Amino acid sequence: MSNQLTRRLALLDDDAHRGLLLQGLRGIERETLRVDGQGHLARTAHPVKLGSALTHPQITTDYAEALLEFITPAEHDIGLALHRLDAIHRYAYSKLDGELLWSQSMPCELPAEKDIEIAWYGKSNLGMLKHVYRRGLALRYGKAMQCIAGIHYNYSLPEELWQLLAEHEGITEERRNALRDFQSESYIATIRNFRRYSWLLMYLFGASPTLSTGFLRGREHNLETLSDDTLFLPYATSLRMSDLGYQNDAQSGLRPHENSLESYVTSLMDAVKRPYPPYAEIGTKKDGEWVQLSTNILQIENEYYSTIRPKRVIRTGERPVQALCARGVQYIEVRCLDVDPFEPVGIALETGRFLDAFLLFCALEESPLINAMEGQVHARNFARTVKEGRRPGLTLTRNDHEVLLKDWAEELLERIRPVAELLDHEHNYKGAHMDALNAQKAKVADPDKTPSARVLQEVRTLGSFAQFGLRQSKLHAEAFRTEPLMPAETALFDEMARVSLAEQAQVEATDTGSFDDFVAAYNSSTLCRNS
């Protein structure tokens, strides 16, 4: 362990500070496609019984109209967040009228591009802004890409913990906003360590080694054929996170600097403001209809597809970068996790326990700045793992040397072990985090235990990516439908749906000004007040 990690662990293990680790927050966002009973993309509108996709706090849509997104409240314990996620699934199944929730990250069999509906949020200016943004995504990446699903893991440590670390490391409040800046830069340091080590998450939790042949829409690829409807790579862990996923040429050179919050924000601001000639040729309107919000590299800052983001809860009318500039980083959002097709809610409790240990390790461990060449190495290690992570003898680059992925993974798990022990000690979880860590150690020792290997084996047995996805979707649906929510829980969700529909109606009734003016004001808004 580094001196910093040893020192910080000892500080948090002190009797006076042990309660701090109980005060962090966890939240999950799970994306999932609605499909029909044959495993084809649902062509129906977002079910009104679920509420408004624009204003509902827990049930919305993401890119495609059929891509549901379930959002848990932030909880102090990941177990409780997963319980909330389970309840959302059970409620959704009570309103789906025979449709299923797709069990995999990579999409089901999709119709022609023209027949994939973009998410609709109503006729208000705000709703149209969200819809036109997605029109732009369809233009830039294709509609099939808008059907990919993932798990987002939101993670924060309490402000009191950052304050404690700041005080013990000589940071005082003499300088204005010193503690806020320490917290922000500590989260940015956490993200740098995540960049160094996130290949490990792809090996341990990647679950998309196969995909439907039709997904690629004729694109060139180096995948192998498993069957008429299935492509794969034999040692892949996550094709979703490979270059086949949500990427394009415009973003290929975009590498926001994460050596400081200021450099990160500046690089995103530049991409939102910088024109991209191929998009400029298209323009923002076609035949009088909006087709994208701008002709710049990014329409809005959230278009940058990253494996992890610094985040701040935004206020009404505020942009994400404005919130970061004004009040600093509040939490981080891990975005690289595949949906686990063996888990009804898409993620296991054991996975959450390990993520908590992994992210706390990233937060407490030393995190030197990353230069451009090092950044390329980290990206290459990640890319190698998602396409070849289970290949025997696979090496990654560390400190200018090639090391076996297996050896590095074992070393990294041992470095995380004291963090898992601390979490178990502080939380009185009776070894839950250590059990989760040991389960990951078993995957490193035996690649056949990884989700990607298990998925590939099941798909080989069935002979079809689609058949495996449909089988798992039906199994999960049966589990949720045979144990519905209690009436009181259902009533709470019903009320949430009713309120959300009323809120959307209110937004639409009180709208003023044209959509053109609304977009102009949005695009011209000062991204950072101190810029």
Helix percentage range: 40-55%
Class from secondary-structure proportions? alpha+beta
CATH class term: Alpha Beta
Give the C-alpha Rg: 23 Å
Overall pLDDT level: 93
Q: What name does CATH use for the topology?
A: Creatine Kinase, Chain A, domain 2
- In total, the number of strands is 14
Uncertain runs:
none
Number of structural units classed as domains = 1
> How many DSSP helices?
18
Molecular shape: globular
CATH architecture designation: 2-Layer Sandwich
Task: Bin the strand percentage.
Answer: 5-15%
Oligomeric description of these chains: single chain
**Largest sheet, strands/sense/barrel:** 7 strands, antiparallel
Amino-to-carboxy terminus distance: 39 Å
Catalytic activity: L-cysteine + L-glutamate + ATP = gamma-L-glutamyl-L-cysteine + ADP + phosphate + H(+)
GO cellular component, one term: cytosol
Family: Belongs to the glutamate--cysteine ligase type 1 family. Type 1 subfamily.
GO molecular function, one term: metal ion binding
Structure write-up:
Belongs to the glutamate--cysteine ligase type 1 family. Type 1 subfamily. The protein has helices at 3-12, 78-93, 125-141, 159-168, 178-197, 199-205, 249-252, 261-273, 277-282, 320-327, 349-364, 372-388, 405-427, 432-445, 451-462, 465-482, 487-509, 515-524; strands at residues 25-35, 59-61, 67-71, 100-101, 151-156, 210-212, 224-227, 230-232, 285-286, 289-290, 308-311, 331-337, 395-398, 401-404. It has 531 residues and is an alpha+beta fold. The chain has a single domain, classed as Creatine Kinase, Chain A, domain 2 (2-Layer Sandwich). The longest helix has 23 residues, at 405-427. The chain is globular and about 60 Å long.
